[in-house]
């Protein structure tokens, strides 16, 4: 009862958080920040209540080190998963060559418009400074019929990569 009267007269006593708690909140904000401005604002607000201390700085450093180590562990797990996927794909291709060929052709058909665009075969003609423009210079302004260049340019004008 005495503490209730004391809070009414002197205000509520500020409860200090542990450095680990403050650091955990700050590390979470660092890892999930949308923009540097929002990060600065959120960290400043968090530290305005507690203030900087060596213990908080060291706890933040430990938290960031742990996050980097966890990322390294995740990278190793992703690498292992990629190796297992590769082995499974090679096994599938070995066991089912016809299906693998059909799948590869389908993937190539999906990626061909992107590849043509990246080489410079655009809807409006060869892109200046691209591989297609350099190839077209070989013909000195006249592209013969039924050449590979003409075929690629025609595909580039008709096929469109959907972003």
UniProtKB/TrEMBL annotation:
Q: How does it sit in the membrane?
A: Multi-pass membrane protein
Q: Which UniProt keywords apply?
A: Membrane, Transmembrane, Transmembrane helix
- Cite the Pfam families for this sequence: Ifi-6-16 (PF06140)
- Kindly indicate where the leader peptide sits in this chain: none
In the UniProt record, does the keyword Lipid metabolism occur? no
- Report one GO cellular component: membrane
Annotated localization: Membrane
In terms of InterPro entries, this protein maps to: IFI6/IFI27-like (IPR009311), IFI6/IFI27-like_sf (IPR038213)
Say yes or no: keyword Methyltransferase present.
Answer: no
Q: Which family does it belong to?
A: Belongs to the IFI6/IFI27 family.
Q: What is this protein called?
A: Uncharacterized protein
Q: What is the organism of origin for this protein?
A: Penicillium fimorum
């Amino acid at each position: 009862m005495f503490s209730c009267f004391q809070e009414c007269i002197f205000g509520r006593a500020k409860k200090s958080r542990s450095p680990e708690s403050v650091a955990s909140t700050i590390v979470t904000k660092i890892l999930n920040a949308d923009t540097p401005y929002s990060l600065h604002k959120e960290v400043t607000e968090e530290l305005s209540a507690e203030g900087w201390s060596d213990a908080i700085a060291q706890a933040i450093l430990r938290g960031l080190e742990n996050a980097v180590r966890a990322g390294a562990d995740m990278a190793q797990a992703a690498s292992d998963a990629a190796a297992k996927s590769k082995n499974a794909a090679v096994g599938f291709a070995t066991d089912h060559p016809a299906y693998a060929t059909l799948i590869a052709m389908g993937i190539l058909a999906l990626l061909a418009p992107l590849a043509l665009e990246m080489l410079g075969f655009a809807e409006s003609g060869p892109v200046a400074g691209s591989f297609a423009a350099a190839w077209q210079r070989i013909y000195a302004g006249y592209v013969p019929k039924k050449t590979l260049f003409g075929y690629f340019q025609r595909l580039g004008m008709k096929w469109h990569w959907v972003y």
